[in-house]
Structure formats: structure tokens, C-alpha cells
């Protein structure tokens, strides 16, 4: 992630970090200003934003914009690896999904802790971040050469496979260890094996 350079970018980045650590309501404008390198309580935040809520909304919208670009770039980049075995590509996809969850961990914490106060921002996250990621998985699966002949409901399959990644990360994050202590390497390998089950196999020859 690019390091914030402008005052506005610092305000957005530091506010999201503070919201994730302390909660939206418990974070004051003065604390955001201090974390962003401004004089706390001097009103520097209001030169860039009308309110604390507008800072939160801006953080979410910037993440939405970045996610849209990432999905496009990842799908283009993935074409370079079509000569590798499908199981390897599936593992790479799973690892990329976990990396995206880690990248968005502050935003996810804010989502579960505070965004019930702001249903319009939940809707923006759903349509701008969550659904595009699942759509990206569905598109990627449907474009793999080995799966070209598979008659599958790719959006539904993407919700299952993508949901497994989300659940694994959330369980690890909220309960401080993964489900049944399955480490990430084992999870990724098993996720890829499940994906391999989508490959259409020739019927067994009758004896």
C-alpha cells in the first residue's frame, strides 16, 4: 500500500487505524488530528472534511476505488500463469484472497464494530468491495482453460470458495487462532483441492 503523502491522505489513513483500534465513537477529531501530524483541537481536519463521518466515508470510498483497480489488475496479471498447473493457480488465488483480507483488516474491523450506524456506507462497501471481489473470483474460475467445459454456477461457487477464505481469516482474527488450528498452508492446500474438484473428469471405463 502506498504511504500517505498529503495531509488529507494522512487524515484518512490515521482515522481508519484509530477507528479500528478504538471504535468510531471513542475516537475524537483531536486524536485524529494528532495522529495525522496536525495540532490537536486546532480544527485542521475541518479544512479537508466537514465531519468525522465524512472522513470515514472517504476512507471507505478510497478503499472501494483501490479494490476496483486491484480486481482488474489481478485478472489481467493472472493470464501470465495459465501455463502453470491449475492446482498451483488455485493456491495462488487463495493466497491472494487472504492477503486482501489482511490488507483490509482495519476496514473490516470498522465494518463489524461501527458500520451498523451507517447503513448507507455498508451498502457502498457491499457493492464496491465485497461483490466485486466475489465477481472477480467467479470470472477467474470461468476463464480457466481446464474449466472451460464445466457447466457450473460460477457466482454461487465463488460465494462458497470466497466465503471459506473470509471465514478462515475472520475466525483467525477474532478468536486469535484459525478454526481447529489448521494453519494457513494446510488451508490453502485444501482450498485448492476443493477447487480441483470442479474439473470435469472423463467417465470411468466400464469393465
TrEMBL record:
It comes from the Bacteria. The keyword Transmembrane helix does not apply. Residues 30-49 bind DNA. Gene3D superfamilies: Tetracycline Repressor, domain 2 (1.10.357.10). Keywords: DNA-binding, Transcription, Transcription regulation. Residues 5-67 form the HTH tetR-type domain. The keyword Transcription regulation applies. InterPro entries: Homeodomain-like_sf, HTH-type_TetR-like_transc_reg, HTH_TetR. This is TetR/AcrR family transcriptional regulator.
Amino acid at each position: 500500500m502506498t504511504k500517505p503523502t498529503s495531509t488529507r491522505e494522512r487524515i484518512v489513513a490515521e482515522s481508519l487505524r484509530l477507528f479500528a483500534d478504538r471504535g468510531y465513537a471513542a475516537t475524537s477529531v483531536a486524536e485524529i488530528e494528532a495522529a495525522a501530524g496536525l495540532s490537536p483541537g486546532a480544527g485542521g481536519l475541518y479544512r479537508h472534511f466537514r465531519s468525522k463521518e465524512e472522513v470515514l466515508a472517504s476512507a471507505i470510498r478510497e478503499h472501494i476505488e483501490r479494490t476496483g483497480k486491484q480486481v482488474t489488475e489481478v485478472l489481467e496479471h493472472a493470464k501470465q500463469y495459465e501455463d502453470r498447473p491449475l492446482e498451483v493457480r488455485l493456491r495462488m488465488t487463495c493466497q491472494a484472497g487472504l492477503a486482501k483480507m489482511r490488507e483490509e483488516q482495519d476496514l473490516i474491523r470498522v465494518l463489524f464494530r461501527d458500520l451498523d450506524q451507517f447503513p448507507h456506507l455498508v451498502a457502498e462497501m457491499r457493492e464496491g468491495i465485497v461483490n466485486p471481489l466475489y465477481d472477480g473470483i467467479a470470472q477467474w474460475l470461468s476463464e480457466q482453460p481446464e474449466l472451460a467445459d464445466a457447466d457450473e454456477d460460477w457466482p454461487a461457487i465463488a460465494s462458497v470458495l470466497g466465503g471459506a477464505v473470509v471465514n478462515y481469516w475472520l475466525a483467525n482474527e477474532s478468536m486469535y487462532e484459525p478454526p481447529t488450528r489448521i494453519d494457513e498452508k494446510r488451508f490453502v492446500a485444501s482450498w485448492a483441492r476443493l477447487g480441483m474438484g470442479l474439473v470435469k473428469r472423463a467417465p470411468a471405463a466400464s469393465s
